[in-house]
Design goal:
The complex is a heterodimer of chains A (about 575) and B (about 160).
Chain A (H helix, E strand, L loop, with lengths): L2 E6 L2 E6 L4 H7 L23 E4 L6 E2 L10 E3 L3 H15 L16 H8 L24 E3 L9 H9 L6 E3 L6 E3 L16 H5 L5 E3 L3 H9 L4 E6 L20 H11 L3 E2 L2 H21 L6 E2 L4 H10 L13 H16 L7 E7 L3 H5 L15 E4 H10 L21 H4 L6 H15 L17 E8 L2 E9 L1 H12 L7 E5 L16 H4 L4 H15 L9 H11 L5 H7 L11
Parallel strand pairs in A: 1-5, 10-11, 10-13, 12-17, 13-14, 16-17
Antiparallel strand pairs in A: 1-2, 3-4, 3-5, 6-9, 7-8, 15-16
Chain B lengths: L14 H14 L6 H12 L4 H11 L3 H10 L11 E6 L2 H5 L2 H12 L12 E6 L11 E3 L2 E3 L6 H9 L1
Parallel strand pairs in B: 1-2
Antiparallel strand pairs in B: 1-3, 3-4
Classes of the chains: A alpha/beta (about 575), B alpha+beta (about 160).
């Protein structure tokens, strides 16, 4: 790589050619703030918070998009730079709802932190007319509050470019500009897939999930209710970030300890039903493969992806696995098998799930997700909401011991925990399918070709003499590429795994929000995924069909994968949806 | 809940107009930056860009409708509402404004129950604000189609509108 010599604040720095000033400064351990810029998502140089002085340049330049060149002299912290950034912040504040004390992003707001860092002592320096917007709380999963919006357009970029959806954008112009939908429709009336990637990139409190913490606290306090909780694989890869730990910290033990101390009657694990999903989906795959069923089979764990398919690729609905997502399978089993076994009326069970996902909040209200006449799952909390509950309950996260989940619905294998990363469901399925077909364990349990954060991955495996072509896509823009290739006949696959969010659930819309200062330099998808692969590696059970609790469920209740009872409880249907209501 | 912008006048587009628009899109679609020219042509065909028209553009170009709407609301040149049989235009330029044209504008809004840029449900009147029309000596001024009304007072508004009703 060709290196360029530059000077930053008088210090010699070498940086790769093609770097921006922002990237080069980071190599010299100098942080330049960004509000609109977010690596791989948004680079429009619009917010002017990253300005620096460049010797010879007529005006301040935006470090986020300005490339370095040989001999360049850059100053990142002159009074002129600092004054400019402060003024930019004050101008943003002049049309910003400054109710920080009641804002969900307080303490984790990029604007608030910058105002602190740049000594904004007068938040009302530029007082004048302010816009007043109605909240959009129409969607099942989130709220949009344009009064807090700073028009950075990260959400627009995440929706349109990363996800290939584009249901939100900038409307009107100048001072009247706001982020909204076509014809100012409610978000619920658009083809929003509820992925929450917009929330995950928002620097302020303009976008946030619908909070269910109060309902869950109330349920726990109700002595008549038996409140059980399940946690998705990806939650344990990120929860600790909410308590100041670095990205990539394994939170599993403390997470279970915290849930128990919050007062849940049973602390279970979605890993259990992820294993169950593999049994059902693996069986479905082999059935379709051997009996001329519709192929490629496409995974159905990700409700964001499911909604994407329903809105944008209805011609592929027959390719979707009929399996419910692990979250819903868990609820269906909890309110039948578990309820009956323990003599608890299903109506008294409150099934709470903690998910890295906002689309899960939409999923629980879908049709055909109440196998026992009561909702499979009652409340969905995001990873962030769980952290809020831990804070509110006064649990000192640092001091929590490492604990395990409860049997039987808390038992999961290594195959289940990797469901949280792109490629994980495919790998888990292959571990089991190969063994079912060949009668012996796969030569290696590590299907590394389907690992990693690339948006589209392909591999070919020999499964007992049959060549099986698989593809893995994460992020719906990548899903579109794969599906269009299949539709055009350019590609042929037997099995496709699709996750709605880039990198899979570890980077879901319900995960802890990392500021640009972290995301611009750390790949949160890869770091969080590492946690899951490490947990998998250390689990003595690494294949779903070896899960003893799942075996017992089949032996004593469901009979076998794909049985009539299994279909009643664990499978569902999909429907085509319009782009606009 | 947000109130989505309601269309006050029912859409009266014809199959012929739709074919015309689709032909335009076919001709322009491969050019870079074709969205704006297509929207301009669409407005020539329909007179305005209601949701039905934006939907055709969005579907044919495979771009999100929000993208079309974003452009349509960015440029003043694009209309989201149809124009009425009688297009009322009230000058809000400096001279007219200091002479009270703002009050006249508001009086028309309340009388016709429409906002600036909108059209009455019967398709009769539409209302717009404009800047100086060069008749400052007659301030405050409004026009109804080609007819100019000067030295207006708020009390005269209803009488003038009744002439067209």
């Amino acid at each position: 790589m060709e290196m360029v010599n530059i000077k930053i604040n008088g210090v010699d720095v070498q940086a790769p050619q093609g770097s921006t000033i922002l990237e080069a400064a980071r190599l010299a351990n100098i942080e330049i703030p960004t509000l609109c810029y977010l690596k791989e998502i948004n680079a429009i140089g619009a917010c002017r918070i990253c300005v620096v002085e460049v010797k010879g340049a007529r005006t301040l330049v935006t470090a986020c998009v300005y490339p370095i060149n040989e001999g360049m002299e850059i100053f990142t912290n002159t009074p002129k730079v600092i004054e400019s950034r402060k003024k930019t912040l004050q101008l943003i504040l002049s049309d910003h709802d400054k109710k920080c004390t009641s804002c969900v992003r307080s303490k984790n707001c990029e604007l608030q932190k910058l105002c602190h860092d740049y000594g904004v002592d007068d938040a009302d320096r530029f007082q004048g007319v302010a816009n007043k917007f109605e909240l959009d709380d129409s969607a099942a999963h989130m709220v949009r509050d344009n009064n807090k919006c700073i028009l950075c357009r990260r959400c627009v970029a995440a929706c349109e470019k990363t996800q290939g959806i584009g249901v939100i954008g900038a409307n009107e112009r100048g001072f009247a500009t706001f982020i909204g939908s076509a014809f100012d429709m409610d978000l619920a009336d658009t083809a929003c897939i509820s992925c929450g990637q917009c929330i995950a990139v928002c620097p302020v409190g303009a976008l946030y999930e619908k909070d269910n913490t109060k309902e869950v606290f109330d349920a726990i306090a109700d002595p008549k209710k038996h409140v059980i909780v399940q946690t998705a694989p990806a939650v344990r890869a990120a929860l600790a970030e909410e308590f100041g730990y670095p990205v990539g910290t394994d939170s599993q033990g403390k997470m279970f300890a915290a849930l128990r101390r919050l007062g849940f009657d049973k602390v279970f694990d979605t890993n259990f039903s992820a294993d169950l999903t593999i049994m059902e989906e693996g069986t479905e795959f082999l059935d379709r493969l051997n009996n001329g069923g519709k192929l490629p089979l496409i995974t159905s764990c990700s409700p964001g992806w499911i909604r994407y398919a329903e809105h944008y690729f209805p011609d592929f609905l027959d390719n979707l696995s009929s399996c419910k997502s692990p979250q819903q399978m868990f609820g269906a089993v909890a309110k039948s098998y578990y309820a009956e076994k323990n003599n608890i009326p299903k109506e008294d069970i409150v099934c709470v799930s903690v998910m890295p996902c906002t689309a899960k909040k939409f999923e629980i209200g879908r049709e055909d997700q109440a196998a026992n006449g009561v909702p499979d799952v009652d409340f969905v909390l995001t990873t962030r909401e769980l952290a809020r509950m831990i804070d509110r309950a006064g649990l000192m996260f640092d001091a929590l011991p490492d604990e395990e989940a409860d049997a039987p619905l808390g038992l999961g294998t290594g195959a289940a925990v990797i469901f949280g990363a792109t490629g994980g469901v495919m790998e888990a399925a292959l571990r089991t399918v190969v063994e079912i077909v060949t009668g012996k364990e796969a030569p290696s349990l590590d299907f590394v070709d389907v690992r990693g954060i690339e948006g589209v991955k392909e591999a070919t495996y020999d499964v007992g003499g049959t060549t099986v072509k698989v593809a893995v896509a994460s992020g719906t823009a990548n899903a579109r590429k794969v599906l269009e290739a299949v539709r055009n006949g350019e590609k042929e696959y037997h099995f496709i795994e699709i996750m709605g969010c880039p990198g899979g659930c570890v980077n879901g819309g319900g995960q802890p929000i990392q500021p640009a200062s972290v995301r611009n330099f750390v790949d949160i998808r890869a770091e969080r995924a590492k946690v899951l692969y490490e947990i998998d590696k250390n689990n003595p059970l690494r294949k779903s069909h070896e899960n003893p609790a799942v075996k017992e469920l089949y032996d004593t209740y469901l009979e076998k994968p794909g049985s009539h009872r299994a279909h009643e409880l664990l499978h569902t249907k999909y429907k085509a949806r319009d782009l606009y209501k | 809940m947000l109130r989505a912008k309601k269309q006050t006048v029912p859409f009266k587009g014809t199959k012929e107009q739709e074919n015309q628009l689709k032909q335009v899109i076919k001709e322009l679609r491969d050019e870079k930056g074709c969205l704006m020219p297509i929207m301009q042509k669409a407005q020539d065909i329909y007179g305005y860009l209601p949701i039905e028209v934006q939907k055709i553009i969005s579907d044919e170009l495979s771009v999100p409708m929000e993208k079309v709407y974003g452009v349509a609301t960015f440029y003043a040149q694009f209309n989201l509402m149809p124009k009425g049989d009688y297009q009322i235009s009230v000058c809000l330029g400096t001279a007219c404004y200091v002479k009270g044209s703002g009050n006249i504008f508001n009086k028309i809004k309340t009388t016709l129950k429409i906002d600036s840029g909108e059209c009455t449900p019967d398709g009769k009147f539409s209302l717009d604000a404009c800047r100086c029309i060069g008749a400052c000596g007659l301030a405050p001024v409004m026009t109804v189609n080609d007819e100019v009304y000067g030295r207006l007072t708020v009390d005269e508004v209803e009488t003038i509108l009744q002439k067209y009703a």
